[in-house]
Structure to design on (286 residues):
């Protein structure tokens, strides 16, 4: 004990120095918003790596659920493709047309596979961090999907990580349509359960049934048409009574989300250029 006390007394200045450094760092990052946001951002390389290690452990123990989810999704897609192929064969008597249509659908559409390394579910504006960044081709405003449907939109990128605004955020608004009906509205989340959200602005004259699918409309440059969003659970009147509000059971299980894909649509820039040109033309006429 005496030796320990002697050691502490001889080197007390070093302990005081370390203590003051720690206190200074805490004060710097806690009471300065810029330094705090830089350090604690989940896009930061250090924190991103820690989240990645933690996610890898969780992912290992959830492989059974992920495989079951992917299997069910693959079975559904195979059945749908087979049904569409059979209808086209019957209508055209040309099986080669099916292959041509499939190639046309995926032409110009690339995906960047990524893994979720951090996510939140209990906030009004949740965020998801993935392990792909600008060096991997990820850019702001790209759409993010998983094996069962829509996930969100890229909000921020660093070299190796990106932050995604998911459907479970009050900042999110995604153009959707009732599959096979053509009526469209905007998907919004109002908080609460991570299993459901709402589609607003469905017109009063729309005809549909409970249980029908809601998919992306394709009316934006972020998501192509036809990506699953969920199924209609309940129908409400809007506050002004001029439209419907649909409660939708989301097809993406955000509580078990691990593997995602970033949509790298090579045509997106062209779409944006055309949109901006049209807006500029309207302004010039005014």
């Amino acid at each position: 004990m005496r030796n320990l006390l002697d050691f502490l007394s001889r080197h007390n200045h070093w302990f005081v120095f370390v203590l003051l450094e720690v206190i200074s760092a805490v004060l710097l990052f806690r009471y300065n918003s810029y330094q705090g946001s830089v350090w604690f951002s989940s896009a930061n390389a250090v924190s991103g790596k820690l989240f990645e290690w933690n996610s890898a452990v969780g992912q290992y123990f959830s492989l059974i659920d992920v495989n079951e989810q992917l299997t069910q999704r693959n079975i559904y897609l195979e059945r749908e493709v087979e049904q569409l192929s059979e209808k086209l064969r019957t209508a055209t008597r040309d099986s080669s047309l099916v292959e041509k249509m499939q190639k046309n659908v995926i032409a110009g559409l690339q995906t960047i596979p990524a893994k979720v390394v951090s996510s939140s579910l209990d906030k009004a504006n949740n965020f998801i961090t993935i392990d792909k960044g600008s060096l991997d081709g990820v850019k702001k405003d790209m759409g993010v999907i998983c094996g069962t449907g829509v996930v969100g939109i890229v909000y921020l990128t660093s070299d190796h990580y990106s932050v995604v605004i998911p459907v479970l955020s009050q900042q999110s608004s995604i153009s959707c349509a009732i599959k096979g009906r053509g009526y469209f509205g905007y998907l919004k989340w109002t908080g609460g359960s991570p299993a459901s959200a709402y589609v607003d602005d469905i017109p009063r004259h729309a005809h549909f049934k409970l249980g029908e699918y809601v998919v992306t409309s394709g009316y934006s440059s972020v998501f192509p048409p036809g990506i699953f969003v969920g199924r209609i659970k309940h129908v409400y009147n809007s506050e002004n009574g001029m439209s419907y509000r649909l409660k939708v059971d989301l097809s993406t299980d955000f509580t078990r989300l691990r593997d995602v894909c970033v949509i790298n649509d090579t045509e997106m820039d062209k779409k944006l250029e055309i949109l901006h040109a049209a807006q500029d033309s309207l302004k010039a006429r005014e």
In short: The chain has three domains: 2-40, 59-167+259-270, 174-251. The helical segments are 2-10, 12-31, 33-40, 45-61, 63-92, 96-106, 268-285.
